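In keeping with the milestone schedule agreed at the kick-off meeting, the structural modelling team has produced records for the first pair of proteins. Each record is given below as a sequence line and a C-alpha cell line. The laboratory manager (R.T.) confirmed that both were archived under the project's standard naming scheme.
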Amino acid sequence: MSENTFGHPLSGLGWNPRVETAFDAAARHSTHVLLPARVTEARRGAVGVRLPQHETASLAPAVRKAAETDPATAPTSGDWVAVRRSGDTWLVEAVLERSGTLVRQGVAKDSHDQVLAANIDAVLICEAADQGPNVGRLERFLSLAWTSGATPIVAITKAELAGERLPEVVELVESVTTGADVHTVSAHTGLGLEELAARLRPGATWVLLGTSGAGKSSLLNALAGKTVMETGAIREDRRGRHTTTHRQLIPMPGGALFLDIPGVRRIDVPGDESGVDRTFADINALAEQCRFRDCAHGDEPGCAVNAAVDEGELDTRRLERWYKLRREAEWNRSRGDARLRAERRKEWKKNDRHGREAARRKRGY
C-alpha cells in the first residue's frame, strides 16, 4: 500500500487497510482513473458521496445493470465505492467489497434482500422506555444485528419518561439481550450518555436502528453535543413522529460515524439463522443439554429446554418466539434459494438461445 492509511484524506470517514486493498484491486482492473469515495446517502438512481468533499454521483451502466438484477448490490449508505469523472458528472464505477452489512430480508415476491447499511462496526438498537418495551421486536432487531457481523448494543431511550417502571423495563430488556450490552440513557437529562459516548471510537461506523419515535435523533444530537438530526414533535400519545426519510452518514465529534436510517416498520429476519441463534443463545445452550441430538423439544424424554420451562427458568413466550423466528428464517432461506434457482434457469435458457442463434448464423441461415 503506497499511502499511509492514517494520513489518507478519507481517514476521518473510516478509511482502513481493508478498504484500501479493495480499492487498489478495483483500480488495477479499470481502464479509467478511479478515486475512492464513501456513500453518505442513497438516492433514486444516484448517491451522495464524500471525496472528501460532498458530491453527487450517478451509477455507471455496469453498476446500474447489476442493481436492476439484484437490488442488494446497489450502493447504499456506508458503502465504499470507486468513482470516476465523466464530463461534468461523477460515476460510481464499482461498489467495493462490504464488511458488516445490515440486511433486511426482502418482502416482495422476488425475495431480494434490502441492504440497510454497509461497512458497519456496531448497531445501536434504540428501544423507548415509555413504549413497552416490545421484546419481540427487540429480538428481531438483535437477530438482524448479529447476522450483520457488527456488534449490537441496546439503548433504552427516554428513560426519564418511564418513571417508576424504569427498573422493570431494564430488567425485561436485559432478559432478552443475551450477549449484547444494555445502556439506559436519556437525551433530556443526560443519564448514561457519558458511558455510551465512551464506546464511540474514532473511525468506527455505527448504525442507529429502531422504530419511529424511539428517540434515535434526540439521542444522536445529545451524543454529538449539537443538533445533527431533526427531531419530530411529540404526539399526544407521547410517541415521536417519523423524521428520517432517507439514509445518511453523520460524523461525530470524537471521530466515530453514525448511519441514521429511516425508522423500520417491518423486520423479516434473514434466511441466515446465525443471528437468531445468537439472539437466543440461552435456548441454544439448553438445547445442547438435551438427551437426544435431534430433540424437537416436544414430548422427548430428557429435554433440557422443556425442563427449564417447567422449572420457571425459561419463559414460555420467549421459547415460542424462538420457534417462530427459526421457522421464519428457514422459510426466507428457502425463498432465496428458489429465487436463485429461477435466476439460474433464466440465465441457462438465455445462453442456450444465444448458442442456437450463433449456430444458425454460422450455418448461414
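The second protein of the pair:
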Amino acid sequence: MFASKLLLCSALLMLNGAVLSQTLIGLPNFKTPETTSEQPSTNSTTASTSTSTTSTTTEKPITTSSTSTIPPTTPTTSTEPPKTTTTPAPVPTTTHAPQPYPAPSVGTWNASCIMLQMAAQLNFTYEDKNGNLTHGLYNIPSNATVEDKECDRPTIQNVHLIWGPNTSKQSLLMYFDKKNDTTVLSSIQIHLTLLAEDFPDAKENQTLQLIHRSDGEFKTPEKMSYHCTRVQKMNLTETIDAKQLIGWISVSQVQVEAFRSTNATGFSTVHDCDSSETSDVVPIAVGIALAALILVVLISYLCARRRSTSRGYMSF
C-alpha cells in the first residue's frame, strides 16, 4: 500500500516536470537558466531503511533569439561637383559715336585783281521734311572755280566762286572796299541749294541765301595781303517766309589780297591778323605828357630857387 502511493507521487512529479518543460520551450526570447532540483524520498521499513533520491533535471530550453539588426543609415555623399547653371553674359552693344564732320580743304583762287586762299565751312539751320528747323554743316569745296569778278571800280571789287552740278549751281560772292589806303572785307553772299545727296532730310527744292555784312574783317593796308591761320567765325543771316535763320561761316588758313596791280604774280607782303598794331596817337600823347611834366618841374625849380635867393639878400 505504501509502495503504490510512492509510485503515484513519483509519476505526478515527473508529469509536472514534463509540463513545465514544454511550457518553457513554448516561450520565445526567454532564457531559463539550468536548474537541478533534487527531491529526496525516504522509505522506512521496520526491517531496513532505504533512501531513494529522484533527480529531475530540467533541460535547457531551446532559445530562439530573433534579432533584427538594421544598419544605421549612412548619408550618401556625392563626389561629383555640384552642377551650376551659368547664364551667359549679355553681349555688350557697342554704340559708335557719330563721326565728326570733316574739316574743309584749303582752296586757292586767282581773279587777277583779287587773290584768295582759305578753307571755309558753313554752319546753318534749314527746314526738314517735317517742317522743323535742323542744324547742318557744309564745306565750301576747294575745287570751286572763279565764275566772275569785278576789277574795274577803284573802291569796290568782288570775286564770284561757283561749284556743283549744272542744274543746280552753288555760289559764294565776296566784296572788298578800299578806304583811306586800307582794304577791308565788306560782305559775303552765299547761294546754297540743299541737294538730296548732301541733305537727305531737307525739304525739297529748298534754297538758302546766306548773307554776312562785315564789320571790318580782313582789314589790311593797301598793297599788302591779309593773312590769318586761326579760325574766324562770321555771322550769316537769311529771311525766308518771315523766318530768320541764323548761322555762321568759319574760315581758316586765310590769305587774301584785293586791289592788286595788274602785273602781280603772287601775294604781296603779309599783314598778319595777330600782329600788334599800335596807333601813332598813343606815342604822340605820351610824348606831350612827358614834355608837360618836365616843363612843370622846371618851372617849379626856378620859382623855388628865386625865392631862396631873395631871402638871402634880405638877411644882409
